[in-house]
């Protein structure tokens, strides 16, 4: 049987925590930052967790994670 490969794009975006939760970063923080309020940018800095309905999909992309 061939090796099961990890989706590299997903591996760069998600981290599986010891608790089993999956950490992700917020979008909209890369460019066109001048029109975004400072409070909004500060909220976007913080990481978030993947919602329960998407966990199965993310784990399928990270078989060795």
Automatic annotation (TrEMBL):
Gene Ontology CC annotation, any one: cytosolic large ribosomal subunit
Record GO biological process: translation
Pfam families noted in UniProt: Ribosomal_L35p (PF01632)
MF terms in GO: structural constituent of ribosome
Top-level taxon of origin: Bacteria
InterPro entries (UniProt xref): Ribosomal_bL35, Ribosomal_bL35-like, Ribosomal_bL35_CS, Ribosomal_bL35_sf
Assigned keywords, A-Z: Ribonucleoprotein, Ribosomal protein
Alphabetized HAMAP family for the sequence: Ribosomal_bL35
Family: Belongs to the bacterial ribosomal protein bL35 family.
PANTHER family given in the database record: 54S RIBOSOMAL PROTEIN BL35M (PTHR33343), LARGE RIBOSOMAL SUBUNIT PROTEIN BL35M (PTHR33343:SF1)
Protein name: Large ribosomal subunit protein bL35
Source species: Pseudobacteriovorax antillogorgiicola
């Amino acid at each position: 049987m061939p090796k099961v490969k990890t989706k590299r794009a997903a591996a760069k975006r998600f981290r599986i925590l010891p608790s089993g939760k999956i950490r992700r970063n917020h979008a909209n923080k890369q460019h066109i930052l001048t029109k975004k309020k400072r409070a909004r940018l500060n909220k976007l800095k913080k990481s978030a967790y993947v919602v329960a309905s998407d966990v199965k999909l993310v784990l399928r992309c990270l078989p060795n994670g």
